[in-house]
Amino acid sequence: MKSNLLEIDHSFRIIRTHSTSLLIVLAFVSLFFVTPSLAEDSHHARHRPKETAAREKTETYYTNRNGIVTSTAPRPQPGMKLTKTVYGFHPYWYGTAYNSYDFSLLSTVSYFSYHVDPGTGDQKGVFFWEDTPLIDMAKAAGSRIDLTITSFGNADNRLFLGNRTAQKHCIETVTKLLKKKNADGICIDFESIPSTMRNEFTNFVTAFSRHLGKEIPDATVSLALYAIDWQHVFDIPGLLPVVDQFILMAYDYHYSSSTDAGPIAPLQNGKIWPPFSVEQSVETYIEKGLPASKIILSVPYYGQKWQTKGKIFPSKNLGHLETIPYRKIVPLLQQDPKEWDASSFSEFLIGSQDDQISQLWYDGARSLKAKYQYAKAKGLAGVAIFALGYDNGHDELWQIIQDEFLDRAPPQ
Description:
The chain is an alpha/beta fold. It has eleven helices and 14 strands. Helix 5 packs parallel to helix 6 and helix 10 packs parallel to helix 11 (396-405). The longest helix has 18 residues, at 198-215. The two termini are 30 Å apart.
């Protein structure tokens, strides 16, 4: 396995009180009133289409269903190199959107996903891994290729992590798929892991990593982390020796069931929002012993829209309206001027129709730029995108990557 360790010491600041009783009370208040504002541990799961395994469907089917268009992203000059890792997830349900990807700005493209059947370890659902031209296109451009392994839901994870036979079959099957396409590694993305399965999950990741090390010595292992590990399912000291990089899913701090509408990926909370933010998530994992140099900050190419009680914020969530990819947010900017929340470094829109007020919170070029600059200043390994194709038809987000992560020094 490849590794790159650079320990960065950054202490996590805790606000102290003079009263132990007050501290206990505040803890309970946080548990019951603050915690529900953050989607606990289900990030990517919300995006995967809820459909049965339709083997007859093709990438073209999804291309047409989503209205994918071909656009030309900004092309950097020959000889320039990325200064940080830029890791992009390609969701199968975005069909041939990869025809518009600028692979020169992607260190790794991870196919999303091999979705685990918890009873057998087989792949279930739609899966174009063996047929998609994406892999050859990415590799020809110099990008690495990963396969994301997903398992969502408490029940499925409990069943799979308690079934060593299914785990062994999954590991062996995925390894064969990697070899068949000459791929470079995996990303393990298990969401809603039961708190009682902490050791079982660590053992599964360890077994997977060791098997790959024997079969594909240069293969890398990435692991998706929750924004907040409420159930303490990630044993960072136990995982560090067998995981090359940790992809922090730093979004959904406000989600469909949140009490209030608000920023989905606040860089800071600015004392306005609940005490959770991208910076706080990073600091917490560093405090647990995870080196900054092994953290990849995953950013959202989507937004959340709520019906709200008013135009001010925080404003009561009267009903979640939709999750919107960036490509569908852009046309809305022609109707309602975008606004900026300096406290969270987030972009948002306030809409009003038929006496109903809505708030749409998202990450655009300005907020993404702030996160990219933070990742560089903090010494993180790089950034990840969830998901590629969500900006299909628009080039400005590629330009931000080029501006922030491309070495401008001329080739020697």
